[in-house]
Amino acid sequence: MLFMACCRQLFLPHARALALTTKMASSVNIICCIRRNLSSSSSLRSSMPAWVIDEYGNNGVLRFTEDATAPSVNSASEVLIQVHAASLNPLDISMRSGYGSNLLKLRRDPVSLGQNGGEFPIILGRDVSGVVVDCGSGVTHFKPGDEVWAAIPPWKQGSLAEMVNLTEYEVSHKPRSLSHKEAASIPYVAATALSALVNAGGLCRNNCTNKRVLITGASGGVGTFSIQLLKAWGAHVTVTCSHNAEGLVRGLGADEVVDYTAGDMATELGLLEKFDVILDNVGGDSEQWALGLLKPWSGAKYVTLVTPFLLNIDSMGLLEGAVHSGLNLHQKAITNMCNGVFYRWGFYAPDGPALDEVSQLVDAGKILPVVEATFLFSQVPLAFQKVEGGHARGKTVVTVAQEEEGTGVTEEEGETSDTSEQVREEVRQAAPKS
Q1: Which fold has domain 201-345?
Q2: Where are the transmembrane segments (predicted)?
Q3: pLDDT for 266-301, tens place per residue?
Q4: N or C: which end of the chain has fewer CB within 10 A?
Q5: Backbone angles phi and psi of 75, in degrees to 5
Q6: Which runs of consecutive H residues, i.e. helices, occur in 174-316?
Q7: Secondary-structure class of domain 47-111+118-188+350-399 per CATH
């Protein structure tokens, strides 16, 4: 039963080279600019500029093309979006290298079982912020011209392209207070954090008051979002990060910060009051000591986002890998249940309606975008290199379409508190610049 729940979460519809020359990068910009200006109807194009991969590997497999197949509205529930900005996540690095390819290929095309290479070309990028250009006949929540954002399911073509096609249930209206560049930094980490904290961790805005939550590896995208979400819901948040990220996480609301580089982190955390929920973004040997930090026999939950599920399927095959993963999860869950705590896996689960609540929190100043670095569309390989380097302090964003000055809410149109602006400035100062 635990294994089946794991699979259901994973499939939830609502979870070349760095040596590219400057000349090529300039050409990419020119091509994209010309294509955007030649056609007055983006939805009628048969091709579009995009970054694709034709095989799995390192950064050298990234290829720019101006002739990628352009998506179109093919069903009543679909929404066609012109991409203004995208952002990269560690998942994109893993997918570029083939992580999850066996299961994702089967999800894209169920008749592809046993076939090799049929999934290419693949467009990466799980975050999108853009403008609706076309809708299916059954779409009721969106219309052409609407500014939207979304987390893209990993089996669908991604946002490192001019256009992307999603169902209306995977899309949400973009917060009015954010530019597309800022908005693109949030959907993937929001979907991942919500899936982990709500679906697996059992938390929500109605039961979070005074709950004690520990987030390990809190300076990355999922961590910085989770801090803000939990504080907006009234939780007490303790985080682990390196010393140079302390200003960032405190500026976002963390109540207690433990520097994992300063000494014995497990001992220091053990001196604190025990926790109701632990969100583990680190993995490794953290399970060996973190589970003991939970309040026993009180419904406390340990949720890890670092699971072996897809790795097992990649290495063992679909059936053996799935069975092995299910047995592994079942064994850990039973062992820890006997010790009075719950052990669970968290998965990335895209969900448009869930982003609606996030949008409201953003416009209320409760959640701020944390953008560490911004790259042009011509610099996608450099953006991948940045994310692959690790030690993130927020998100890496790629601007696909040029935004007009003044995008976002004006002083007359929206309300932004002084406190929100002060925190925003602290975040900007604490986060390293590209």
Answers
A1: Rossmann fold (3.40.50)
A2: none
A3: 999 999 999 999 999 999 888 889 999 999 999 999
A4: N
A5: -145, 165
A6: 180-183, 187-194, 221-232, 246-251, 265-270, 286-290, 309-316
A7: alpha beta
